[in-house]
């Protein structure tokens, strides 16, 4: 189980500037099968010296620059990482310059010369400095570069950038020539002293110069090489603007370029075989191989996605089991009244829902329709509360799976009432003769009910609540009408000087919005006896309607035909009943006399009729079938203690039997 090094390890070759540097591996242990993951971290040692791009550097600095001016220097590179990498810079002693060491975003160091004392060309035309780069190893490794400073005559104005730091982002697969950023500087001088040239600063790494190109005239920074997010995620690029004066002025800026990751690395699958070949009797669940997947991309681009195919195992689910919808009557046809909402957690076609209205009541199918795709329920026609108040239906929600799953939801539609019906007067009827309807006796006391107006309203609830008011009257002080009852009562006692005839107009109003109304006319006569009123009625000529005679004759004919039919049916029933009882008695008598001597009460007495001798008679029995009959003939007899004897002989006629019954005081002979 020991893990050994098989060859010399060079951390800089394996991982470059990345830290920490680790190599991952997997170990499979058999019997029992176990999988272990591990990683080996390659630790850095200080085996590399810092290196400057060149051994010499030259700076041209105007004598007119004030103290505090800064001049970036080329950076040294150290392939080691951590404390073994480049840690600091040192500058040889001199009276004019100091060294300022700064840290980039990625942790690397760079140095800038800071002018502490103004230069004087007449005093010293050239300076020689030594810049030393040191790493953090023990002992430290170092590198040096010779810096030659030329002191130049003054240039009044140096270029100035509109911002000191620019930020940009670019995709790692951006082709060569893609614009990254555009820097801009200005110079107040005229002529060549105001013309600006853009370039990379001296301490910009060579790797950056290989990946990016800068247009010296426009300041456009473009992609030059192939970027790789997995190698470097952020570039810190230092640029400068220099005019064309004899003693050129210089300005510096920094561009931070963020590299955006794209999914440009395919997953790498490593298969570790456990059993090869696999035995044919391997038990279910036996591990055949181990797979590990890696992807060099970052974030979502580096995930391996395992897609699980969907099975239609979820029925549609509605937000509620039933819906109650309230629709005012007299609605406009074709309006949507409900949206049945349902969801299905399945995917694709298994989650595609369709809505259908189950065919139950034919009335529902003619009045309602549902959109198959979105579940919107439409009302196809106008509803009437007075015709039907409630509709019940079932909506089926079905997914597109195979087989499909369904869910049913009940929908109850309630038709709310609107005040669309005026009160209808039942009494007095509008066609009633208004000359005489009600009679009140003279001297009737106050508070006595004379008559009542009866009305109904087809609406419901508050819309059907009727109020009654007296609109017109012959004598308004004589009668009152109940506000909610419609009862007409005397307001005071009737006097002799009151008119004999009164006409009242009653206004009936419901309580809907808007209010609908109707009116009823009531005639009241003041008379001692009804006879007086009847006398007045004789003076009124009846309305001559020629159709009333036809109606009278039609009604009379219907009555007569119905009466005749009823009498005929009753007569036939009585006759049938009588015949049935008679045939039943004859049948019972026939059956009883075939096996015994008829009793004295089961025959027709022919002696009293004078047709036969007293001691001889015939009995005739008729069956219910008229084709057969029994005839009984008896001989004279006298009482004898020896009893009676019967003898029967068959007559030659078909369907006829003769029975002779006799008695004697002696024993019969064989001849007898």
From TrEMBL:
It is found in: Cell membrane. The keyword Signal applies. It is a single-pass type I membrane protein. SUPFAM superfamilies: Cadherin-like (SSF49313). The chain crosses the membrane at residues 552-575. One of its GO terms (cellular component) is plasma membrane. One of its GO terms (biological process) is homophilic cell adhesion via plasma membrane adhesion molecules. InterPro entries: Cadherin-like_dom, Cadherin-like_sf, Cadherin_C, Cadherin_CS, Cadherin_N, Protocadherin/Cadherin-CA. Pfam families: Cadherin, Cadherin_2, Cadherin_C_2. Residues 53-161, 162-269, 319-425, 432-544 form the Cadherin domain. Keywords: Calcium, Cell adhesion, Cell membrane, Glycoprotein, Membrane, Repeat, Signal, Transmembrane, Transmembrane helix. Its main location: membrane. GO terms for molecular function: calcium ion binding. PANTHER family: CADHERIN-87A, PROTOCADHERIN GAMMA-C3. This is PCDGK protein. The gene is Pcdhgc3.
């Amino acid at each position: 189980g020991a893990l050994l090094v098989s060859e010399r390890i060079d951390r800089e070759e394996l991982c470059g500037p990345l830290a920490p540097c680790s190599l991952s591996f997997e170990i499979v242990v058999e019997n029992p099968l176990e999988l272990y993951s591990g990683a080996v971290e390659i630790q850095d040692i200080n085996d590399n010296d810092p290196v400057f791009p060149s051994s010499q550097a030259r700076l041209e600095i105007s004598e007119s620059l004030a103290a505090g001016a800064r001049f970036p220097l080329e950076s040294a590179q150290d392939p080691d990482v951590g404390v073994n990498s480049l840690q600091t810079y040192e500058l040889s002693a001199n009276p004019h310059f100091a060294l300022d060491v700064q840290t980039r975003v990625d942790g690397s160091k760079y140095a800038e010369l800071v002018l502490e004392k103004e230069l004087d060309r007449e005093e010293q035309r050239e300076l020689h400095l030594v810049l030393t780069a040191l790493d953090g190893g023990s002992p430290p490794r170092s590198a040096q570069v010779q810096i030659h400073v030329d002191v130049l005559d003054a240039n009044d104005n140096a270029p100035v950038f509109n911002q000191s730091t620019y930020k940009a982002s670019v995709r790692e697969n951006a082709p060569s020539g893609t614009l990254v950023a555009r820097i801009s500087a200005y110079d107040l001088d005229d002529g060549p002293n105001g013309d600006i040239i853009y370039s990379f600063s001296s301490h910009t790494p060579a790797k950056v110069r290989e990946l990016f190109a800068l247009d010296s005239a426009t300041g456009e920074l473009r992609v030059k090489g192939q970027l790789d997010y997995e190698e470097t995620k952020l570039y810190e690029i230092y640029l400068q603007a220099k005019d064309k004066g004899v003693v050129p002025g210089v300005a510096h800026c920094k561009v931070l370029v963020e590299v955006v990751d794209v999914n440009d690395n395919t997953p790498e699958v490593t298969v570790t075989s456990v059993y090869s070949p696999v035995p044919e009797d391997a038990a279910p669940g036996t591990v055949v191989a181990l797979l590990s997947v890696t992807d060099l991309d970052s974030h979502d681009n580096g995930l391996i996605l395992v897609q699980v195919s969907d099975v239609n195992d979820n029925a549609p689910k509605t937000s509620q089991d039933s819906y109650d919808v309230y629709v005012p009557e007299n609605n406009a046809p074709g309006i949507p009244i409900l949206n049945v909402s349902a969801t299905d957690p399945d995917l694709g076609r298994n989650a595609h829902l369709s809505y259908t209205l189950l065919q139950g009541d034919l009335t529902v199918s003619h009045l309602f329709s549902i959109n198959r795709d979105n579940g919107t329920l439409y009302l196809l026609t106008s509803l009437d509360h007075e015709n039907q108040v409630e509709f019940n239906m079932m909506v089926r929600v079905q997914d597109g799976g195979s087989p499909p799953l369904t869910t049913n939801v009940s929908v109850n539609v309630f038709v709310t009432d609107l005040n669309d019906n005026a009160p209808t007067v039942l009494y007095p009827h509008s066609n009633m003769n208004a000359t005489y309807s009600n009679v009140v006796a003279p001297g009737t006391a106050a508070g006595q009910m004379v008559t009542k107006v009866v009305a109904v309203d087809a609406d419901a609830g508050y819309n059907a609540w009727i109020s009654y008011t007296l609109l017109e009257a012959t004598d308004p002080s004589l009668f009152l009408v109940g506000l909610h009852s419609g009862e007409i009562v005397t307001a005071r006692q009737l006097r002799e000087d009151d008119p004999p005839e009164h006409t009242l107009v009653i206004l009936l109003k419901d309580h809907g919005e808007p209010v609908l109304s109707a009116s009823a006319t009531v005639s009241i006569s003041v008379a001692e006896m009804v006879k007086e009123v009847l006398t007045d009625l004789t003076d009124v000529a009846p309305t001559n309607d020629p159709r009333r005679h036809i109606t009278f004759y039609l009604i009379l004919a219907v009555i007569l035909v119905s009466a005749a039919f009823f009498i005929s049916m009753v007569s036939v029933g009585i006759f049938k009943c009588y015949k049935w009882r008679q045939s039943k008695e004859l049948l019972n008598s026939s059956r009883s006399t075939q096996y015994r001597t008829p009793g004295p009460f089961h025959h027709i007495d022919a002696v009293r009729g004078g047709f036969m001798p007293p001691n001889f008679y015939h009995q005739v029995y008729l069956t219910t079938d008229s084709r057969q009959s029994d005839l009984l003939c008896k001989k004279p007899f006298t009482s004898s203690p020896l009893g009676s004897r019967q003898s029967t002989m068959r007559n030659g006629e078909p369907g006829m039997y003769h029975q002779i019954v006799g008695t004697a005081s002696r024993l019969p002979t064989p001849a007898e």
